[in-house]
User: Fold these one by one.
Assistant:
Number 1:
Amino acid sequence: QVQLVESGGGLVQAGGSLRLSCEYSGRIFRFTHFGWSRQAPGSQRESVATLNFQGGSTVVDSRFTISRDTTKNTVYLQMNNLKPEDTAVYSCNVNVLSPFPGNFWGPGTQVTVSS
C-alpha cells in the first residue's frame, strides 16, 4: 500500500508564505500524477495543483507551485501571498497505476490564514 503524510500547515498572516510537504512511502512503479487539494469548512474539496509523471504541472493560482524531490519521496506545495480564503485542510494524493492501482490520499494538514 501507498501511504502519504502531509506536514507544514499552520497559522500564518495574510501575505505570508507556507511550504507544505507530502512524504510518501510504498511501491509506486507507474502513476499518472501527484496532486494537492483543499477543503474549507462547508465547501467541496477542490484541486489546487497537480504534477504528472512527466514532470508537467498545473496550478489553479499563480501563487502556488508544486514540486517533487524524488530523493526524499516528497511532494511540495509552495504557497505565497496567502489570503484568508486560502484557509482549508490541504491534502495530497497520488494516482497509482502499478503495481497496485489506486488513488491514495494523506490525512491532510490545516492551513489557517488570518487577516
Number 2:
Amino acid sequence: QVQLVESGGGLVQAGGSLRLSCAASGTIFSIMGWYRQAPGKQRELVATITSEGRTNYAESVKGRFTISRDNAKNTVYLHVNSLKPEDTAVYYCHARTISLNFYWGQGTQVTVSS
C-alpha cells in the first residue's frame, strides 16, 4: 500500500523557517514534490525533485524554498525560509511513479503570521 505522510507544518512569524517532510512507502517514485493550496485558491506547484536530484521551483518561492530528497529513506523535504503571509496554505506532498501513477499526502498546514 502506497502512503505519503507529511509532517513539519505549523504556525510561524513572517521571516521564519520550517522544514516539511514527506515519508513515502510502498513503492519507488521517479518524481516527488510539494504543492500547496491556500483558502479559496487552486492547488499550485511549489517544487519538484527527480530521483536524480533535478529540481524545479515555482517562481514565487525561488531563492526561499529548497527541496531535497533522501532516496534511501524514500523521503522528500521542503526547507521553507523567509516565509511570507502569502505562503499560508495547506502543503501537500506529491509523488509520481515511473509508470505515471500519482499519489498525494494528506496535507500539512503552514500558517505565517504578519
